[in-house]
Amino acid sequence: xxxxxxxxxxxxxxxxxxxxxxxxxxxxxxxxxxxxxxxxxxxxxxxxxxxxxxxxxxxxxxxxxxxxxxxxxxxxxxxxxxxxxxxxxxxxxxxxxxxxxxxxxxxxx
Amino acid sequence: xxxxxxxxxxxxxxxxxxxxxxxxxxxxxxxxxxxxxxxxxxxxxxxxxxxxxxxxxxxxxxxxxxxxxxxxxxxxxxxxxxxxxxxxxxxxxxxxxxxxxxxxxxxxxxxxxxxxxxxxxxx
Lengths: 109, 123
Hints:
The complex is a heterodimer of chains A (109) and B (123).
Chain A: E1 4-7, E2 10-13, E3 19-29, E4 34-39, E5 46-50, E6 54-55, E7 63-76, E8 86-91, E9 99-100, E10 104-108
Parallel strand pairs in A: 2-10
Antiparallel strand pairs in A: 1-3, 3-7, 4-5, 4-8, 5-6, 8-9, 8-10
Chain B: E1 3-7, E2 11-12, E3 18-25, E4 34-41, E5 48-53, E6 59-61, E7 69-74, E8 79-84, E9 93-101, E10 112-113, E11 117-121
Parallel strand pairs in B: 2-11
Antiparallel strand pairs in B: 1-3, 3-8, 4-5, 4-9, 5-6, 7-8, 9-10, 9-11
């Protein structure tokens, strides 16, 4: 099973700042099959990024994903008030079971 | 538009069997390369993938929970059903169903999610 470790656990930033979230896999994720989700309190997760760097439909271009192998990054170029939430990474390329990271909370500083 | 909605009991007793239903609309469960997974999230914790049913009716399960899970679908009713046996308080969680484009052997990412249903396990 591929273990995904997200860091930091909590990111305290102000609106307008840049957010950089990390997701590290315990073994290589083939074909960069990694996704990112945003989850707000009381809501289901929302797909942001798939294939490590492809934005899902309707996702603003301030969200970008990068990385390959074992190291992946989600960047939010300028935080908007609605971006404060928990973010999860998920791998789906290498082997079952699918796994999620433990999450990074982006909170208002 | 694509929607998924979970339904089932809000409270189950330890050792009982949980049955959850996911009713989908906006796509067909027989669509090639489009399946449905169940995912759960204990309060304040991370997401955990449980099971997936493929468009061709193949199934895949979490390694750690495989012995307790059964996933099935009724295409005519647009429903996916998950059963989990021998429920325990640690199974208290919000249970989500979610749509996934799939390869021939694996679900991929989840592009549409249900709202989730909170299931509490307590005597």
